[in-house]
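User: Run a structure prediction on this.
Assistant: Running it now.
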Amino acid sequence: MSEPYVKTKNKNGVGYIEFFHPAHNSLPGNVLSELARSITSAGEDDSIKVIVLQSGGDRTFCAGASFTELIDINDEETGKVFFSGFANVINAMRKCPKFIIGRIQGKTVGGGVGLASATDYCMATKYAAIKLSELNVGIGPFVVGPAVQRKLGLSGMSQIAMDANSFYSAEWAMQKGLYTKVFDSVEKLDEEVKSFAEGLCNYNPKAMTEMKTMFWRGTEDWDQLLTQRAKISGKLVLSSFTKEKLKEYK
């Protein structure tokens, strides 16, 4: 695999939405836009009862936002649009009327932690350590913060946000509530994801939709909130501190 993609497959009523990028599944704006669109479309498809969000490859689930695009930001509006990419995906997941199961096969960083946190039920392998690295480049996990805090609590989120150099183990993430189960291999993970997702397909779709609405109660302001957070990041990325840090990645 060498070309980025987002694709959806319907198997036995389960919509498997998979994204991929050759740079450790980092996500540029066009892939994020397609991912948000795919989630919305699957939510509107009556033949899909449950959604599984996954990435291609056996190693990194998601390395976060594309550094190639981040480095090229030179004005606040472009910065806002860039950081709105993950906001749009998280809001699409939040509004989707169907349960979304996360399949996290490997390490996940920054925005990827936000995606995992925005799923309704998330399973992982023991290799799926997490890290919020944004502070390293002078920004912060502003856009994904609400989703991460919703799953890890304020204490857990602030811990990994401030300790921006460290990966926290999959077991730690499970103890904090991000992951429901952690498996020794990708094969075991896939077996459980398939079994659990197909089992959910036997339940009343209307009941699951009502449950999802209940789970996400209190997040109705996230369209506005995450846009405001994207503006903050869009300003910070133009700071001299961040520009100097980003030069190290060129």
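The radius of gyration is 17 Å.
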